[in-house]
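Note to self: keep these together.
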Amino acid sequence: MSDSVPEAQAVPEAEAVPEAEPTYDPAAPAPLNVDRTPSGNADVDAQLGRLADTDHLATDGHVEVYEDVHRGLRDALTALDARPGPPAPPSSYGNRS
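Structure:
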């Protein structure tokens, strides 16, 4: 019997495995980072803020949001054309007797 300690066998170092780089997917959702300047009209600003929803959708999901925002903006602009207050008095132009 030998009183010597067996030599530790040399363990080869693990080869460095390069980490996988994230692949770029142009179709993946990504924020557009477009600045939105407030218009001063709460209805319009709400619709423009809704455009941020597209930042989390794939490109094919943008159309639904754009159409919804378009409808909302059209409604807001139509409301600006509506006259507030009581209706105009009826005209007596056609009531000649």
